[in-house]
Known about the structure:
The protein is α/β, with parallel strands linked by helices. The chain folds into two domains: about 1-150, Cytidine Deaminase, domain 2, CATH 3.40.140.10; about 165-310, Cytidine Deaminase, domain 2, CATH 3.40.140. Helix content is about 35%, strand content about 25%. The chain has ten helices and 14 strands. The protein has helices spanning about 1-5, 40-45, 65-70, 90-95, 110-130, 175-185, 225-230, 240-255, 270-280, 295-305, and strands at about 20-25, 30-35, 80, 100-105, 135-140, 145-150, 165-170, 195-200, 205-210, 215, 240, 255-265, 285-290, 310. Strands 2-1-3-4-5-6 form a six-stranded mixed sheet. Strands 7-9-8-12-13-14 form a six-stranded mixed sheet. The N and C termini lie far apart (about 40 Å). The mean pLDDT is about 95. Zinc ion (ZN) binds near residues 62, 86 and 90.
Amino acid sequence: xxxxxxIAPKSPHPTNKIAAALFGNSKIGEEYAVYRTNHWPDxxxxxxxxxxxxxxxxxxxxxxxxxxxxxxxxxxxxxxxITDPFCPNCAKNMAEAGIKTIYIDEAGFDKDFFKxxxxxxxxxxxxxxxxxxxxxxxxxxxxxxxxxxxxxxEGYVPIVDSPIQKEPIENASDAVLADVIEKxxxxxxxxxxxxxxxxDQNGEKFSLLARAHVVVGYSLERSDEALELLTPIGKYSFxxxxxxxMMMHLSRRGYKIIEDYLYCSQVPTSREQVNLVxxxxxxxxxxxxxxxxxxxxxxxxxxxxxxxxLSYI
Length: 313
Ligand SMILES: [Zn+2]
């Protein structure tokens, strides 16, 4: 937390200066740490600037999500320290990335920024953590005390309705990707999905398939809550879009995309595209370039394409 508080003032954001420090264990048991502030990814900062929205999304990446995308290592069971209470989108990302414990600076709860938006923290972010099985604590750095906000029961295992599908592949090529896309399209005619050809930390190669789904821990098969889960709350929803889900899963397992072999059956949302830029992805293959959750995603594609920030095939 000390490190997060130390770097937060370096955030390029003029008013909301937020930082996160993520601590994990690599597959071979080495400890690692990643520190990030909320920021504009370099290509967006340089070519578009800070005043323009990308479709309907801000051009910034939140600190927690930036730390996960920048981990370059396995985030499963990692801990994260954040200077401020987190938004529902970061809650979803931390859940999918397998974060186990979240520490929030107690002082963050006193800021105006939080007071204006606190409803989302209680109503969505904490619910998401509860279902995903994430412990949440507040750390009072001045008095050196901690407060338990959420403690998960021992042995709790979150529901996973629609797991990421993983198949071994011998190598990554256009032909292999085309083959995986064809099979996935046949089985997922009415659902949007993403495919990535990836390599693990031992050099083993796989194809991964992620579908859009409510965030881990929630089930659409439970009729008592399905409608509530599918109804957005303000600008947030419980749905995790497939590209985002895939990017968080890559961090969770410490996988790397091989040569930008990344596919989405339709145009990703504005937020997903900004996150791809933040993850330093340069190219994405799109199934149906006319189709998107909303027209803002198409605007984002046009903007990022014309500025040569992301290429779309
Ligand atoms: Zn956030």
